Amino acid sequence: MTEKKTITDERLAELTQQGDKQAQEQLLLRYQKLVRFCARKFFLVGGETEDLIQEGMMGLLQAMNTYKQDASATFKSFAYLCICRRIMDAVKLAAKKQPSGKLVFSSELDFIPSIPDPDAQMIYIDEQNELMQKIGGILSDLEFRVFTLYLGGMNLVEICSSTGKEYKSVDNALQRAKNKIQAWLKK
Question: What is the pTM for the complete model shown?
Answer without folding.
Answer: 0.53
